[in-house]
Amino acid sequence: MVKTDIPIYLASKSPRRRKLLKQLNLKIKSFSVETEEIVLPAEQPYATVIRIAKEKMAAAKKKVKNGIIITADTIVFLDGKVLGKPENQIDAFRMLKKLSNRTHQVYSAFCIYNSATGKTITEYVKTDVRFRKLIEPEIRDYIKSGSPMDKAGAYGIQDDFGAVFVDHINGCYYNVVGLPLSKFYHALLRII
User: Fold this and answer.
1) Which of 6, 75, 127, 147 could form a disulfide with 175 if both were Cys (CB 3.0 to 4.6 A apart)?
2) CA–CA dist 114, 70 (Å, integer)
């Protein structure tokens, strides 16, 4: 159990990350930061999520002067390319068709900063996710629900329907949701 009198801030719009942190009984305040989540050519996927999490941290430090700040980033990686959040329903359909009957990687990085000590911890996790063969009507139904539109790779493993696309995973389930909970928890204990 994490106990601290220092306020904890999550710099993220993600309701999934807020929910995961509540599982740890953390009392957090959340706010969003606006950063450009640019994927650089030839950058390794782990380097991309680490860099973006650090960029979010730099922006978050401008808003919060005292406390523990948490930032994170998650990407889906397939065929040497990052699949970000879909731009529209056609893009979501294209992504899900591409993921069908294949294995892809999900990378998440988090950054934790403690203003009292000036210490920062940044780590990442990779999880392999295997999709079963998807049929077009179920992809269309899922897209109509609106669920894939705010998620990297156009799916959420925690969704009622998106969950049934996943045949199996190798690695941390919570990483695919958006925050590798066990690794994050141990990092948080080290930074308090």
Assistant:
1) 127
2) 9
pLDDT at 171 over 80: yes
Tens digit of each residue's pLDDT (9 = 90 or more) over 21-75? 999 989 899 999 989 888 898 899 999 999 999 999 999 999 999 999 999 999 9
Whole-model pTM over 0.90:
yes
- The Cα-based distances of 17 to 11, 50, 93, 134, 158 in angstroms read 10, 17, 25, 27, 12
Contacts of 137 (CB under 8 A, 6+ apart): none
Map residue 52 onto helix, strand or coil: helix
Structure tokens at 40: 């650089």
Q: Which of 5, 73, 79, 141 is catalytic?
A: 73
Interatomic CA distance for residues 146 and 154, integer angstroms: 10
Smallest CA-to-CA distance from 151 within 5, 10, 17 is with 17
How far the first Cα of the chain sits from its last, in Å, is 12
Is 167 designated active site? no
Contact status, residue 102 vs residue 42, Cβ threshold 8 Å:
no
Q: Measured between alpha carbons, how far is 179 from 116 in angstroms, rounded to an integer?
A: 24
Number of other CB atoms surrounding residue 125 within 10 Å:
23
